[in-house]
Amino acid sequence: MSAAPEEEKFPEIAEYDEIISAYHGTDARCATLIVSSRFTIGHKSTLYLGDGVYFYQGCRDWALDWARTHDKIPPVVIRSIVSMGKCLDFTNKFYSAHFLEFCTKLRTRLASKERTRSLLNKMTDATVINMIANKTPVDTVRAEYHLDRRAFEASKIRLDSRLVVCVRNLDKIRESEIDTNSRPSP
Prior knowledge:
Elements: E1 15-27, H1 28-36, E2 53-57, H2 60-69, E3 75-89, H3 93-111, H4 125-135, E4 140-145, E5 162-167, E6 173-178
Parallel strand pairs: 3-4
Antiparallel strand pairs: 1-2, 1-3, 2-5, 3-6, 4-5
């Protein structure tokens, strides 16, 4: 009889001292409400990095583009100061390698039982990150997101690369204000 698949584990997430400028795209009405009260955590299995509030690190133009392409009228950007805290950072090779190992063990475990096999097709980055965050505290998640647009065929530079930060712990958002450069003209 074969041994049961090993339960997937994830190492403790290190505390980052890093404080970043982060940009969130939305519409003017929501921006006013968010700045006067606070953000709320989004919960959907289709979210890229799991439950949280999404920002673009260091570039308000990506946030403004996001608001425009998601029919936010008028599109507005909120600039926030975020303390990264316990950051599941996919730009760090250590966390990327452990994520792969976690996913491999999870897939093996799900595939080993008839009743859980159907869950394999429902597995997303978001569901796996949420599972990890249920096992070990995660304040923020950071990953690169890019399309494959290049300046020329052999170029290694992806022109649409951006750093996405998902804040899971709202206490890590130190301050927020409407970015005046993103407001529509009167």
